[in-house]
Hints:
By secondary structure, the protein is mainly β. It has 6 helices and 19 strands. A 5-stranded mixed sheet has the order 2-1-10-5-6. Strands 3, 4, 7, 8 and 9 form a 5-stranded antiparallel sheet that branches. A hairpin with a 5-residue loop joins strand 1 (29-34) and strand 2. The structure holds the ligand Nc1nc2c(c(=O)[nH]1)N[C@H]1C(S)=C(S)[C@@H](COP(=O)(O)O)O[C@H]1N2 and molybdenum atom.
Amino acid sequence: HxxxxxxxNSLHFERHHAGxxxxxxxxxxxxINGLVNQPLVFDYEDLLKYPMVSKxxxxxxxxxxxxxxxxxxxxxxxxxxxLVSCSEWTGIPLSTLLDEAGVLPAAVGADAASMxxxxxxxxxxxxxxxxxxxxxxxxxxEQGYPMRLFVPGWEGNIxxxxxxxxxxxxxxxxxxxxxxxxxxxxxxxxxxxxxxxxETKSLITSPSGEMTLPNTGxxxxxxxxxxxxxxxxxxxVSADGGRTYADALxxxxxWNKALTRFSIPWEWNGGDAILQSRATDSxxxxxxxxxxxxxDRGTNAFYHNPGIQSWAVNSxxxxxxxxx
Length: 324
Ligand SMILES: Nc1nc2c(c(=O)[nH]1)N[C@H]1C(S)=C(S)[C@@H](COP(=O)(O)O)O[C@H]1N2
Ligand SMILES: [Mo]
C-alpha cells in the first residue's frame, strides 16, 4: 500500500535480538580503540559537530524472503518480504572518525557492541556511516537511537544499532552473529564464511499475495527493486510465469543501493495468470529465479534468498504466493 521508495520512519521494519534499549544520549559514548594511534571517545553532542552526509539507502535483513526457500505456505508481500525499508540516512562517514583515530596498517574494522560484527577495512573506509538521522529526524529508538552503524548494501545485521564501540583488529573477530548465525550452508554441507552484500532483487507489491482483484480490466502492476551491488538498471515483468517478459517503467530515481520503483500496465482478462518481476543491476547481475537459489544453496539455507517472487492470480481474482 506504499508508493515511492522512501519508507516512512514509523513503518520502517524492526529486528531486535534483545528488545529496544532506553538510552539517554547524554550518557551514551562511542569508543574507537584497538589498532589505532589514538583511541577516541565521543559524546553524542561531540558527534553532532562533525560534517555529515545524507544518502538514500535500503536496509534489508538477510532473513528476508526466507519463507520462499522451503515450501511456499502462501503469504503476503509484507509477511514474506517485509524486512526491507529505505530511508535517507544522515551520518558521519566512518572514514572521518577512523582518520582522526589514525588507523594502523593491516587493521580490520570490527565493532564490539552486544551485537558485534567484523567489517573489512576497505568497506569501513568506503561508504559506512555512523548514522544519527533518518529522513531528517533523529534515528528512532527502534532503529538504534542515538546512533547506529549504517553499512550500505550489506545484510542488515551488520548495521549495528545503539553503537558503542568500534575496535580496530587485525582479523575477523568471529562474533556469534557472523558464525553461528547469518552463515549460509551449502548443499555439499560446507558453508559460506561471510555473505555481505544483499543480492539483486525485486518484488511486485501490487497486486500481491492475499489481495483480490475486484474486476477484470486494466491494472497498474507496481513494485520495488534493489541491489547491494549498485543501482537498478532494468526491471522486467511477466504475467505468464516467466515465459515472456516486458520492460517495466522506472518511476523513481535510480539511486545506488536504494529502492527503485517500477510499474507496468496490465490487462487482466479474468483468466489464470502468474505475475513475476526480474531486476537487473548496474553491475549486470540479473535476479535469480527461486529454482536457481534452491539449486545453489539447498533448502536448509534461509538467509540471503533474492529469488523471483511469483504471484498467482486465479479466475476469482485471488492473488497467492506460489513456487514456479
Ligand atoms: N545492537 C543491535 N544491532 C542490530 C540488531 C540488534 O538486535 N541489536 N539487529 C540487526 C538486524 S538482524 C537487522 S536486520 C537490523 C535491523 O534494523 P532495523 O530494526 O532498524 O530495521 O539491525 C541489526 N542491528
Ligand atoms: Mo536481520
